Amino acid sequence: MLVEVQTDDQGLISDVTKGSVKLPQGVKLELTGTRKSRDGGATILVLALLFGRDVAVGIVSAWLYDLLKGRASNVNVGGKPAEIDNKKLSTALERSSDP
Fold this sequence. Notes:
Elements: E1 2-7, H1 10-17, E2 27-36, E3 43-51, H2 57-68, E4 74-77, E5 80-82, H3 86-97
Helix pairs in contact: 2-3
């Protein structure tokens, strides 16, 4: 699923672009691109987040929340805005992973 993260946190940008983000077992995160926000200030990281059906959505959402809290200003999951809140990220991930 596609996840877009808007951030000006250089540490987060570096961690993602260098592949140094620690992932839960069974989860893959691939950087598919970056671009600047419309106002030119923040970077938008375009990510492919992949996890199998045997990986609980709650684990993925908790991990994603921990990664983004305080480091990202906006996030889109599956092309739709989501709040950076563990429960709301879980709902967005579930919605986006449904066939």
